[in-house]
Structures are given as structure tokens and as C-alpha cells.
Amino acid sequence: MRDLTTLPNDLPEPTDDGEARHLLGVEMPDVELEGTNGPQLMTALGDRAVLFIYPAAGSPLEPAPNEAEWNSIPGARGCTPQSCSFRDTYSQFTDLGVKVYGLSVQPVDVQEEFSRRNHIPFSILSDSDYDFTDALKLPSFEFNNRRLLKRMVLCVEKGLVAHLFYPVFPPSESAAQVLSWLSDQRKATSPS
Predict the structure, then answer these.
(1) pTM for the full model?
(2) Domains identified in the chain, total number
(3) What is the pLDDT of residues 17-60, one digit of tens each?
(4) Is the bond leading into 167 cis (omega within 30 degrees of zero)?
């Protein structure tokens, strides 16, 4: 398997196409998804949660896409670096009382293999039936006759999308960007 932990320098940067604007303030749908830590009701993510959504993490259980084609799609490449950025900063999120979840449309067995291999401490959820995707009208794209999700991060507070990162670039800095926003929020609500 090729090295999926590093990103090429010439990746095209995604632009904001407006397809996620409607998500701000939206309530989590009453959908249950299978995950690497068991089933997860999306209305019960916790008082504060971060849900990072990505197209497809590399796994030997699925055929690898043509690298040149995959790299040419703005925002497609980088699922492993993004997931590992949340893994490496996981304790910072838990210190803030924020639960972390990953989500893609890949089957749970693929996500379990990916989680084991990369030592992911949080649950990665499978929306392989597109229940969550369709309920929220998440931005997606077609690749090799498969519908995949565009990369984004939803910051959820008490069941509502309080903040949205879309597009996400570079994926390897996703967790740091979210932590910076959370830190700014904490400062803004702390008494002076």
C-alpha cells in the first residue's frame, strides 16, 4: 500500500461551492449509524462534539483509486492525515469536554481495519446507507460510480450544528483548525 500519511505538495485546494451553507444551525437527525465502537444515535453525540466527515480512507479491504485521478479532485486526498490529526490531538478535545467522531460512507469493516492500523481512539461512523447524508443533504461527489462525501467538519453543540468547516484544507491541519476555533469560543464565553 502506498504512503497515505503524507500529502503531495501540488494537491488542488477545494473552494467553497456553497453546498454546505444550509448546515449551520441544523439539528442532528434521528438516525442511528454503525461505528467502530458500536451503534451511535446521531441525536446523542453529546453536549459538545466534533464530527469530521471525509470521502474514503485508504484500506487494503477496498481497491485503491487511481492515484492521479484521486489527487486531481479538490479535497479528496487526505483522509488518513485528517484522521491522524484528530488522533494526535484527541486528548486536547477530551480535555475540553468535546467528543470526536469520524464519518464516511465506507462499510464498518473497512473503518475497523483503518482504525486498528492507525490506532484511532474515537468512533468512526459508517453512513453506508446514506441515511445521515440524505437527512442533512450533505455535499457529495461521484467517483468510480460511487457517491462519496465531501470533506467537512461539523461542530455540534446540544444536537445543533454550531459551526462548520467547509471546505477543509489542508486535511492534515483540520484538528488544529477546530481546536483553534474551540479555544476562541472558550475565550469569548469566559468571564474577564
Answers:
(1) 0.93
(2) 1
(3) 999 999 999 999 999 999 999 999 999 999 999 999 999 988 88
(4) yes
Residue at 133 is within a domain? yes
| Residue-number span of the structural domain to which 42 is assigned | 21-189
On whether residue 4 sits in a domain, the answer given is no
Decide: helix, strand or coil at residue 127.
Answer: coil
Q: Is the peptide bond before 12 cis (omega within 30 degrees of 0)?
A: no
- Alpha-carbon distance values, 60 to 14, 114, 146, 192 (Å): 27, 9, 18, 52
Q: What is the mean pLDDT of residues 91-106?
A: 97
Mean pLDDT of the chain, nearest integer: 93
CATH of the domain at 76: 3.40.30.10
Q: d(Cα 105, Cα 126) in Å, to the nearest integer?
A: 5
Residue 85 lies in a domain: yes
Start-to-end CA distance of the chain, whole Å, equals 52
SS3 of residue 74 by DSSP: coil
| Confidence at residue 2, expressed as pLDDT on a 0 to 100 scale | 54
Q: How far is CA 75 from CA 13, 61, 160, 168, 191, in A?
A: 6, 22, 25, 7, 38
What mean pLDDT do residues 113-121 have? 96
Instruction: Report the distance separating Cα 93 and Cα 95, nearest Å.
Output: 5
